[in-house]
Amino acid sequence: SFSNLPDAPVDEIFALNHAYVADTDARKVNLGIGVYRTEEDQPWPLSSVRLVEEEMYRQDDPARHEYLAIEGDLTFLDLARDLMFGFSSASSDSENKSKQRIASVQTVSGTGANHVGAAFLAQHFKPKHVWVSTPSWANHQTIWDLQGIERKSYPYFDASTCSFDFNGAITTLESEAAEGDVVLLHACAHNPTGVDPTKEQWKKIAEICQRKRLFPFFDSAYQGFASGSADEDAWAVRYFFNLTSPPMEMCVAQSFSKNFGLYGQRAGAFHLVTNGANPSEAPLVRKNLCHIIRGEYSMGPRYGSSIVKRILGDSALRAQWQDDLTIMSSRIKRMRQALYDELVRLKTPGSWEHVINQIGMFSYTGLTVKQVLELKSEFHIYLLKSGRASISGLTEKNVAYVAQAIDTVVRR
Ligand code: LMR
């Protein structure tokens, strides 16, 4: 019988979303789950995605529901890899050599990529510890705990300045992390804080990883969505990848949920980067990844990855996708500014510059648990207990209401 099972933790993000949907109050505002919403507070199938869907519908390809290979769609994987690592389609010899360092497989979006990577490393690399930032996306903890790898945390957020705790992070990694430990890093738009290292700070983190032989594991969930530029948002990953003497082994979990608006379609990829010393290593890694994937779910899903493949492989669609990224990232920046302006206008106690300085989907507002709970119960405004607010839930219509509510709970 299962009656003595331990109670399982509830996922805060999805539980909160459920509560929001069930709330019948007309004033309700969802700043919880990280999903893009339009100015009308609606989900948005990207215009580039729509074009591809219409094309797929017209083509009526009888093979559209066939199985993919276990590793996934190879063309999709090449395009996903090139987007992440910045390879051009007409590759030079040195680029081809770089590509051969990488073993890529298709995954069940970002969670699946993190999972497959964690499962592979747990089995074949056997790290003693995984270092996760405090705070981090809660699912990182779950994913690594389920693999039985001991989790350690490095400081990430300086609450007094609402900025990246660079000294805390590097001091901890320098003095406590040991060779062979995995260090989980957010490629850009850190979730939940919206605070990223500067390029100089990334260089120092890379130097520590390289010198101490720590194993970097990047989670890239917001490439192009954060700054509007896929190249800019991949800067840290590419910097680590291009380091020489010696080149580093590393992993990248790549999600297409946010940057293609394909949340429920679960499009993603996992890349394991070898050090390049042995050209037969990457194919062997991929074979082992396939073994895990086959045993767990056979292969990644087809629909979302076909859309991503079509867009990334066509220059006109790709340009349209770039416009979509600009639309999403600039609306979020506008809403950051609008919230900030309202709080300043209301003279809400405290400093709110961090709302405009943070990047990506979220703002780590600095609101306390008590204030967050009051926002929910009295104002029907939903955000995570940590104070993380998903900025895309703000619109021109509700931002004054939200600012007024924040002002009210902050003044108590
Ligand atoms: C979030 O952090 O809200 C999103 O990434 C959704 C998720 O899967 O948790």
How do the helices and strands line up, and which of them pair or pack?
Layout lengths: L11 H11 L6 E2 L16 H13 L14 H12 L7 H7 L2 E7 H16 L4 E6 L3 H9 L3 E6 L1 E2 L4 E2 L1 H11 L5 E5 L12 H14 L2 E6 L9 H4 L1 H8 L7 E6 L11 E7 L7 H16 L6 H10 L2 H31 L7 H5 L4 E3 L4 H11 L1 E2 L5 E3 L8 H13 L1
Parallel strand pairs: 1-12, 3-4, 3-7, 7-8, 8-9
Antiparallel strand pairs: 2-10, 5-6, 9-10, 11-13
Helix pairs in contact: 2-12, 2-13, 3-12, 5-6, 5-11, 7-8, 8-10, 13-16, 15-16
Short structural description:
The chain has 412 residues and is an alpha/beta fold. The protein has 16 helices and 13 strands.
Description:
It is a single chain. The chain has 412 residues and is an alpha/beta fold. It folds into two domains: 12-44 and 329-411, Aspartate Aminotransferase, domain 1; 74-313, Type I PLP-dependent aspartate aminotransferase-like (Major domain) (Aspartate Aminotransferase, domain 2, 3-Layer(aba) Sandwich), CATH 3.40.640.10. It contains 16 helices and 13 strands. It has helices at residues 12-22, 47-59, 74-85, 93-99, 109-124, 138-146, 166-176, 199-212, 230-233, 235-242, 281-296, 303-312, 315-345, 353-357, 369-379, 399-411, and strands at residues 29-30, 102-108, 129-134, 150-155, 157-158, 163-164, 182-186, 215-220, 250-255, 267-273, 362-364, 381-382, 388-390. A seven-stranded mixed sheet has the order 2-10-9-8-7-3-4, with helices on both faces. The longest helix has 31 residues, at 315-345. The termini are far apart. The chain binds (2S)-2-hydroxybutanedioic acid. The site of (2S)-2-hydroxybutanedioic acid has 6 residues, from loops.
